Amino acid sequence: MSARPTQLSPLVRTLRHVIFGASLSVGSLSMAYAADAAPKVYHIAPSELETALSQFGREAGVLISYGSQITSGLKSRGLEGQYTPEQGLNALLEGTGLQAVADGNNGFTVQSASVAGAPIELGVSTVVGDWLGEAQQTNVFEHPGARDVIRREEFERVGATSARDVLNRIPGVNAPDNNGTGSHDMALNFGIRGLNPRLASRSTVLMDGIPVPFAPYGQPQLSFAPISMGNMDAVDVVRGGGAVRYGPQNVGGIVNFVTRAIPDEPTL
C-alpha cells in the first residue's frame, strides 16, 4: 500500500515560501557585502575631505557617517591604488587626525582619532591663589605694605644655615636663640615689629602660602620646629596690618617659607 502525499495547508505553504525567501535575502546581502569588501581600484584626487569621502562612499558602496564640525576645513591627500573599503577609508583620512570605525552594517563612522597609551607631557603650571602671589623681589614694590623677600642666592651669599639666620637679617624681625629655659624652646620663636619672640603666635607661619601649624589661629608655632633651608627657595616676610588677611591673630606679620621647585634632573 503506497503512502499518499501529504496535502499542505495554504498557511504552511505560505510560511515555507516566506522562510525560503528570507534565507535567500540574507544570503544575497552577505554576498553583496563580501563583494563590497573586496579590494577595488580607486582614483580620488586631493580635495576637500568631505568631497573625497562622498566620492569614496559612492565608489566603495559603503555608508560613511560623520559630523561636518569635525571635517570642516580639512583636506584629503586623495587615494590612488587598490584597497578594501576599510583600508581605503583609513588611507583617505591619513594626516587629518580622524579615524574610521566600522559599525558592522556595511558602514563606517568617522571620528577624532585618539592615541591610546601615548605619554602626555604637561608644561609647568603656576597656581596663585593667595594675595602674596610669587615671592619675587619685584613683588615687594607692588605690595601695599612692608615686605621683604630673601632669595636662595642671598642664603648662600651670607652663609645662612637656619631659618633663624635668615629671619634675623630682615628689618623688624627678631628671632633669638632658644636658651632651653622656656616651654617654647622646641618651636621657632620670632617677633615682628617689636613683639616679644615668645609671642610668636601673634604671627602666622606659612609654607608656600598655606598655614602649616596644627592650630593656625591659636599656636601657629607648634608644628614648625627645625626646618631645612636647603629645601627653601625664599623667605617672604610681610609686616604690619596688611597681614591680617590671614587671620585676626596676625598683629605682627606673616612669615612665608617658599620651597624649591622639583628639579628635572638629580642635583647635589
Automatic annotation (TrEMBL):
<dbReference type="Pfam" id="PF07660">
    <property type="entry name" value="STN"/>
</dbReference>
<dbReference type="GO" id="GO:0009279">
    <property type="term" value="C:cell outer membrane"/>
</dbReference>
<keyword id="KW-0732">Signal</keyword>
<keyword id="KW-0998">Cell outer membrane</keyword>
<dbReference type="InterPro" id="IPR039426">
    <property type="entry name" value="TonB-dep_rcpt-like"/>
</dbReference>
<keyword id="KW-0812">Transmembrane</keyword>
<dbReference type="InterPro" id="IPR012910">
    <property type="entry name" value="Plug_dom"/>
</dbReference>
<feature type="domain" description="Secretin/TonB short N-terminal">
    <location>
        <begin position="62"/>
        <end position="113"/>
    </location>
</feature>
<dbReference type="GO" id="GO:0033214">
    <property type="term" value="P:siderophore-iron import into cell"/>
</dbReference>
<comment type="similarity">
    <text>Belongs to the TonB-dependent receptor family.</text>
</comment>
<keyword id="KW-0813">Transport</keyword>
<dbReference type="InterPro" id="IPR037066">
    <property type="entry name" value="Plug_dom_sf"/>
</dbReference>
<feature type="signal peptide">
    <location>
        <begin position="1"/>
        <end position="37"/>
    </location>
</feature>
<dbReference type="Pfam" id="PF07715">
    <property type="entry name" value="Plug"/>
</dbReference>
<protein>
    <submittedName>
        <fullName>Iron dicitrate transport protein fecA</fullName>
    </submittedName>
</protein>
<keyword id="KW-0472">Membrane</keyword>
<keyword id="KW-1134">Transmembrane beta strand</keyword>
<dbReference type="InterPro" id="IPR011662">
    <property type="entry name" value="Secretin/TonB_short_N"/>
</dbReference>
